[in-house]
TrEMBL record:
Source organism of the structure: Mesorhizobium australicum
One record GO biological process: nucleotide-sugar metabolic process
Domain of life according to the entry: Bacteria
Gene3D superfamilies from the UniProt entry: NAD(P)-binding Rossmann-like Domain, UDP-galactose 4-epimerase, domain 1
Reaction it catalyzes: dTDP-alpha-D-glucose = dTDP-4-dehydro-6-deoxy-alpha-D-glucose + H2O
Requisite cofactors: NAD(+)
E.C. no: 4.2.1.46
Protein name (record): dTDP-glucose 4,6-dehydratase
Length: 353
């Protein structure tokens, strides 16, 4: 099948490109604007494969998207391109509206025009898969509740509000114009090639540099962690086997407080790379909480397990150990980003994975 992946130079998009290209009967066209979050080095494992190609384009440019859809005879669009960092959305919401709302509208516009020109089996096969977040559902109490596909939307941040808007647009293009779509909403991802300002890589790399390990408030906020390669498998399954018009929640069944995430990283590093003196947890530093910080997200992923047969392969502990090993072995990837793009002043950003 021929896939168009938007945002394929980002954290999850690059995992999706690597996963789909591992089946040599698939072709992937990766469309990415290369914002600060895009990094072509994450595609190095596949960049020379015959079934992978890259186009530096803005998703707001629907004319170029339509040309690519036609040129590459696309069967499935997997739309991941987004502004994705909550703290950046608080400092500067405009780019989030531009890319996440207008950009998704332009992707739908180009995809509908392309879809209308298809016929037969090709038209039957076409899907627009929109990748979204559990943050559209808002905040859960610490001790009860879980997000299902029926949970009403209640976004708290400019980021989650822009993603909620894009989800609504995708459903409207299905209901109003008959565009075949599937949607998925997932929890916090972690794993290799994760931008070093996010909580897990930041804590690993700061610990190795003997720098403070920042935690928002008291570290009580709970997130449900999903290993990125498990997510990439889930997305490929949803894009190709998901039922037209349906949405699927994807989660790792690994709820952890931020404090326990940081503590577990310190424990693993204490074993793998002992400090000269004391534990890495001595570096934990509490910083002022983010405004509108949701307490807890938790995903009920039973629908995708039941209907599409997907299950995560990594537990949080095995996925975290693999992630730490990857960061220890791959300074070629994260070193330049840490030195050039992200100097570590925006410590607060680390609390949104
Ligand atoms: P990311 O920030 O790592 O990557 C986003 C990519 O989109 C970058 O490569 C960037 O260059 C590209 N991009 C941004 N604006 C663009 C534009 N206008 N045109 C073309 N490309 C553009 O994001 P991620 O963490 O990989 O997330 C991917 C998707 O998954 C997003 O839609 C996000 O909302 C969703 N999601 C992420 C998480 C998570 O834990 N990371 C959780 C739930 C949902």
């Amino acid at each position: 099948m021929n896939f168009l992946v938007t945002g394929g130079a980002g954290f999850i998009g690059s995992a999706v490109c690597r996963h789909i290209c591992s089946d040599l009967s698939n072709n992937v066209t990766n469309v990415d604007k290369l914002t600060y979050a895009g990094n072509l080095a994450s595609l190095r494992p596949i960049e020379n494969q015959h079934n992978y190609r890259f186009e530096q384009k803005d998703i707001c440019d629907d004319g170029s998207i339509l040309d690519i859809l036609r040129r590459d005879d696309i069967d499935v669009v997997m739309h991941l391109a987004a502004e994705s960092h909550v703290d950046r959305s608080i400092d500067g919401p405009e780019a989030f509206i531009e890319t996440n709302v207008i950009g998704t509208f332009r992707m739908l516009k180009a995809s509908l025009e392309y879809y209308r020109g298809l016929s037969g089996a090709k038209k039957e096969r076409f899907r627009f898969h929109h990748i979204s977040t559990d943050e559209v559902f808002g905040d859960l109490p610490f001790d009860s509740g879980i997000f299902t596909e029926e949970t009403p939307y209640a976004p708290s941040s400019p980021y989650s509000a822009s993603k909620a808007a894009s989800d609504h647009l995708v459903r409207a293009w299905h209901e109003t114009y008959g565009l075949p779509v599937v949607l998925s909403n997932c929890s916090n991802n972690y794993g290799p090639f994760h931008f070093p300002e996010k909580l897990i890589p930041l804590v690993i790399l700061n610990a190795l540099d003997e720098k403070p390990l920042p935690i928002y408030g008291k570290g009580e906020n709970v997130r449900d962690w999903l290993y990125v390669e498990d997510h990439a498998r889930a997305l490929a399954t949803i894009a190709t086997k998901g039922v037209n018009g349906e949405s699927y929640n994807v989660g790792g069944n690994s709820e952890r407080t931020n404090l326990s995430v940081v503590q577990t990283i310190c424990d693993i590093l204490d074993r793998k790379r002992p400090r000269k003196k004391g534990s890495y947890s001595d570096l934990i530093t509490y910083v002022t909480d983010r405004p509108g910080h949701d307490r807890r997200y938790a995903i009920d992923a039973s629908k995708i397990k039941r209907e599409l047969g997907w299950t995560p392969q990594e537990s949080f502990e095995t996925g975290l150990a693999r992630t730490i090993d990857w960061y220890l072995a791959n300074e070629w990837w994260w070193g330049p980003i840490r030195r050039e793009k992200y100097s570590g002043q925006r410590l607060g950003e680390a609390q949104k994975a």
